[in-house]
Q: What sequence folds into this?
């Protein structure tokens, strides 16, 4: 079983659209994971019949018992996250869950409570099983939730004898991205030919390098700026990186999204071929 | 007045809106802060001249073994498992540390001091009249909020600050948007855009920040985003149609107001509409 993550650094370059296309091309040979727990979109294309739903309770939050509190002000002085208001109520969004206040309170007026900060799901789709999640808005700990869905996906792929675990990664280079890249065989980086796209590509490649993950690059909407697309190709060539393919800007992506189907099922042969060739080239890295 | 530009979904055009809005208002002595420290891009369009660079870190424990008695209290109070106390050794896992200071506070032997572990770089500069600041998180670092908070220290009371936020709805976005008077939500008229607009508009509501919507590539999709805004009473501040030529300028790092003077006026008008809504509440 091979594990791959589709990432981009910059958001909105087409990770999820490509991921859904790969899932469709591989029929049911893969298990899918939506690693963007902040803004999970893969199921908007693949559909999802939910089989399992679980609470995500990785964090705790401090709660003040105002009856016991004698307003000594120690917690206010110690908290480094600005979570304690002047009336000693604790803002659950700002609270980091470090428990310093709870340990320090001379009145034992502060309690650490478990909090459900999201949910994760196992669902059936036309393209195989999907493990996905939704992190509660304004919650932290997204890396832990990504780790849960990634591990569950791996377990399902292994026990059902699938060939691939496909992970749709989140944007950025921070904690959820690191979790989505952990233990994968290779990463497909979807880049767009813009100055922002190139800047962010370099940063995500250095993250891959940092964690020893082998990357390949796919240039999406390359014809929106051929000049910048060439800059990316040259950069990859100089760095010995595989450019798995180039995909043109095509309204079929938007139209298929409106219909809730992968673009590869949109009856556009030329586009299907290009996406297929991206996957085939990338797949060579995995062998 | 603090004005954030956010979006649930990435790549909808936050930076485009933030940069062009700043350029349209350049006479107003404003500050633009790029708080997407994982992937900062605004500098590519504004090309500021930087005059100040500083390493930003979070405080992590250092053990003074001359005093440590290996009592284990530090590891007991650490909520993040960043310390492990063995028979004659204390292991510090710096990358797990959130810098809360519990271990140092509770150590009965006062054997723990704190030192800064760098997580990124803060840079300040000027782009013409615009004051500019951003952070760059070091690749491999998981925690961006401390760096975002450092960048936000450049907000100047009484003056306009535009904050370019990271995508999503979790802690880095909360750090960027908190204490703002208004939040512009940038989206696109697709099912992805709609789904993520719903998340981020619930986020700003929970945070008590007023919001309005900019629909980018407004002609590439359907009407559901507009219907949603009508239903939720979210004002649509601007619709920006897809324009292949603009996309190409954008790709080269050229702001659209430079090529389409009419956009200068659109952004300026948008600002006055927002300013009206913020009247009386701005800090």
A:
């Amino acid at each position: 079983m091979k594990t791959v993550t589709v990432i981009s650094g910059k958001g909105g370059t087409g990770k999820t659209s490509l991921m859904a296309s790969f899932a469709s091309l591989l029929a049911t040979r893969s298990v899918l994971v939506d690693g963007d727990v902040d803004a999970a979109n893969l199921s908007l294309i693949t559909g999802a019949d939910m089989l399992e739903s679980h609470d995500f309770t990785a964090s705790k939050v401090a709660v003040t018992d105002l009856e016991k509190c004698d307003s000594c002000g120690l917690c206010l002085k110690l908290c480094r996250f600005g979570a304690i208001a002047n009336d000693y109520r604790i803002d659950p969004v700002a609270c980091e869950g470090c428990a310093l206040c709870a340990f320090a309170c001379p009145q034992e007026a502060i309690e650490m409570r478990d909090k459900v900060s999201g949910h994760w799901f196992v669902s059936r789709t036309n393209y195989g099983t999907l493990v996905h999640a939704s992190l509660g808005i304004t919650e932290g700990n997204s890396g832990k939730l990504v780790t849960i869905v990634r591990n569950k996906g791996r377990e399902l792929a292994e026990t059902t004898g699938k060939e691939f675990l496909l992970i749709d990664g989140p944007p950025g280079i921070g904690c959820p991205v690191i979790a989505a890249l952990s233990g994968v065989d290779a990463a497909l980086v979807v880049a767009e030919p813009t100055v922002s796209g190139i800047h962010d590509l370099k940063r995500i490649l250095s993250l891959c390098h940092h964690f020893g993950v082998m990357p390949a690059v796919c240039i999406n909407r390359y014809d929106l700026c051929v000049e910048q697309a060439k800059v990316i190709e040259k950069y990859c060539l100089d760095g010995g990186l595989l450019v798995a393919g180039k995909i043109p800007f095509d309204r079929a992506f938007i139209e298929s999204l409106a219909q809730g189907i992968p673009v590869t099922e949109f009856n556009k042969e030329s586009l299907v071929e290009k996406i297929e060739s991206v996957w085939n080239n990338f797949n060579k890295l995995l062998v | 007045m603090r004005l954030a530009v956010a979006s649930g979904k990435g790549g909808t055009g936050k930076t485009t809106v933030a940069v062009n809005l700043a350029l349209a208002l350049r006479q107003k002595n404003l500050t633009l802060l790029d708080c997407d420290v994982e992937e900062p891009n605004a500098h590519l369009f504004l090309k500021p001249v930087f005059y100040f660079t500083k390493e930003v870190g979070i405080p992590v424990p250092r053990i003074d073994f001359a005093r440590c008695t290996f009592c284990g209290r530090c590891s007991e109070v650490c909520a993040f498992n960043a310390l492990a106390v063995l028979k004659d050794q204390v292991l510090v896992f710096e990358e797990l540390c959130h810098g809360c200071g519990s271990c140092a506070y509770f150590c009965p032997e006062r054997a723990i001091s704190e030192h800064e572990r760098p997580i990124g770089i803060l840079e300040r500069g000027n782009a013409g009249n615009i004051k500019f600041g951003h952070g760059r998180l070091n690749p491999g670092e998981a925690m961006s909020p401390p760096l975002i908070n450092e960048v936000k220290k450049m907000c100047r009371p009484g003056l306009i600050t535009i904050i370019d936020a990271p995508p999503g709805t979790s802690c880095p976005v909360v750090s960027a948007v908190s204490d703002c008077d208004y939040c512009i939500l940038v989206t696109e008229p697709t099912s992805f855009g709609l789904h993520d607009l719903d998340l981020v508009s619930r986020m700003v509501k929970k945070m008590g920040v007023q919001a309005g919507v900019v629909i980018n590539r407004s002609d590439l999709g359907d009407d559901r985003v507009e219907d949603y805004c009508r239903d939720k009473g979210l004002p649509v501040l601007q619709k920006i149609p897809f324009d292949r030529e603009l996309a190409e300028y954008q790709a080269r790092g050229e702001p659209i107001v430079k090529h389409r003077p009419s956009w200068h006026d659109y952004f300026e008008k948008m600002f006055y509409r927002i300013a009206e809504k913020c009247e009386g509440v701005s800090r």
Q: What stands out?
A: Chain B has a mean pLDDT of 95.
